[in-house]
Amino acid sequence: MYAPGGFFMDIIHNNIHMDMVKCRAVSQMTLEDDMNLPQDNPDLDKIIFREGTLNLTDTVVTNDHVLVKGQLLVTVLYLSEDEEERLARTTGKLSFEENVYLEGIQQNDTVDVTWKIEDLSVSMINSRKISARSMITLTLQSDQLYDEEAAVDLTDAEGIEFHKKQMDITSLAVCKRDIYRIRQDLELPASMPNFYHVIWQSIRIASIDMRPLEEKIAISGELSVFLLYESMQDGDHQYYETTLPFSGTIDCQGSREMMIPDIRYTIASREAEVRPDLDGEERCFSMELVLDLSIKLYEQQQISVIEDVYGTHNEVRADVKDGSFRHMLLRNSGKCRVTEKRKIEHTGAILQLIHSEGEVYMESTSVQENGIEVEGIVHIKSLYVTSDDRMPYAAFEDDIPFSYLLEAKAEAKDCEVNLQVALEQLNVTMLDGQEIEIRMTIDVAAVLLEPYTMQLVRDVEILPLDKEKFRALPGIAVYVAKPDDSLWQIGKKYYMPVARIKELNGLTTDMLKGGEKLLLVKER
User: Cβ contacts of residue 33 below 8 Å, gap of 6+?
Assistant: First the structure.
């Protein structure tokens, strides 16, 4: 290709796929409303347990703003004044529309919205009405995908010397969204009576592991299921808790086994129903969870790119630009183990713990010289049977703090930290009628990505030789190397190939020592 005064060489480029955070915002909102009991529900006497789930119904992106619409679904377990229907459940919805300022977002951009229910409290107004209040934290992030074009070779390099540099890059190989359905059937043990009415259900993902395979993502884990129900036999209350393993795959074009996964999920929907078994008895409980997956797979690459060029017969001008890259500095995980004892204030003694669950909340993350310090809390809820006949069921809630240092290299201070925490194990046991012991294991995993910039050759222009500059060079010279000299710099100055300098001086490597003498011969 010809240009004024010369021509551009044909260059072989490598497109390196990268991603970066384009814009991010965190917004908090308070939801508060009253919930009336349905007409067929018994009157409320005491609230025992509550659970909240957020359902995002729509996300509308405009320039610099995102409108998030959704509902907070609140479920409440309570003791009633009806002796025949002592335990009851009610649900309510708190709708919201939150307009979040997200500087730089544009109408056609994709935004990921994640949420945390920071606090959910319910209180009794009267026997037919409940007040619900919650603090919701929304995190919105839009990522920008881009390609860095790096010159890796020249098609016709006669009379052209080029220097390459090895780059360690963590590039984006796969970026997609998908869904995964978890379908499970639970059948009651033979020793337990049939379902009549499910009073309370808790279906949670106890653990999940998502790994890249060849053209697939393997997903496996366990569901934690707790059921409190009224049986067919005299309406007795029964409770059953178990874990159910699940596994499967989803297709993922471009996935490879050795890639680094960054896969996030939210539960889009959760459905459950009692159904008859093969004998027609109400003994089966069917569940379906739909997970929304945000999938990013990264690949460690080593690429030799052209860093500089010069000509031995012509003047050569390289058009360079800065490229933004990152490489993985560290991938590490650890387990934080916490043991706490708590006194429970209740008029009656604890007879039996029947269900416990926990939710991890990170409060702060800081990169230290020797690692990543993570601090947070685990919100614990336990449902138990008491010795108080008037209040036979009660619940305990508390925030258990934790702190953990995940070991990392000292150079991690300026790195991007991709951190995930999960409650891997929770065990709540009775010590006596008023005290419980809480043992938990929190899984902490981090990927450290170090950002850096590097000059990349974009175009190489061949120009006529600067004859005056060439004539000013000596025909034969003995050059005394300076401590910071390189064969590349010397060859570029004297229009000599590096291989020719090595040949003339019997050198076998590119290493030079200060004070070393080199014979240089001007050649045309």
Answer: 92, 94, 131, 132
Distances, alpha carbon 261 to alpha carbons 108, 181, 216, 355, 472, in Å: 26, 20, 12, 33, 58
- CA 218 to each of CA 164, 170, 269, 294, 297: distance values in angstroms, whole numbers, following the listed order: 38, 22, 21, 14, 13
Residue linked to tokens 């998502």:
210
Lowest mean pLDDT among 81-85, 194-198, 221-225, 450-454: 81-85
- Flag whether the pTM goes above 0.85: yes
Q: Across residues 82-111, what is the average pLDDT? A: 92
Q: How many CB atoms lie within 10 A of CB 411?
A: 12
Q: What is d(CA 165, CA 168) in angstroms, rounded to the nearest whole number?
A: 10
Q: Is the pLDDT of residue 71 over 80?
A: yes
- Give CA separation, 23 vs 9, 112, 124, 139, 171, in Å: 38, 11, 42, 11, 20
State the SS3 of 13-52: EEEEEEEEEEEEEEEEEEEEEEEECCCCCCCEEEEEEEEE
Bridge partner residues of 224 (DSSP): 204, 243
Note whether 15 and 154 are within 8 A (CB): no
User: Read out DSSP for 316-350?
Assistant: EEEEEEEEEEEEEEEEEEEEEEEEEEEE---SS-E
Distance of CA 18 to CAs 65, 323, 324, 331, Å? Answer: 25, 10, 9, 19
Q: What confidence tier does 413 reach under pLDDT thresholds 50, 70, 90?
A: low
Computed from CA positions of residues 408, 413, 415, 418, in that sequence, does the dihedral angle turn out positive or negative?
positive
- Residue 175 pLDDT exceeds 70: yes
Rg (CA), the chain: 33
Give the amino acid at 399: D
**CB atoms < 10 A from the CB of 508, how many?**
6
pLDDT for 408: 75
Average pLDDT for residues 322-350, to the nearest whole number?
A: 87
Q: Are 439 and 335 in contact (CB under 8 A)?
A: no
Cα 122 from Cα 397, distance rounded (Å): 13
Residues 421-441 pLDDT 10s? 999 999 999 998 889 999 999
Q: Which amino acid is at 223?
A: L
Kindly report the number of other CB atoms within 10 A of residue 225's CB atom: 20
Whether the CB-CB separation of 58 and 69 falls below 8 Å is answered with yes
Instruction: Over range 155-174, report the average pLDDT.
Output: 88
Q: What is the C-alpha to C-alpha distance for residues 169 and 301, in angstroms, rounded to an integer?
A: 5
Selection from 326, 178, 181, 182 nearest residue 260 by Cα: 326
Count the neighbouring beta carbons within 10 Å of the beta carbon of residue 67.
13
5: exposed, middle or buried (C-beta count within 10 Å: 0-12, 13-18, 19+)? exposed
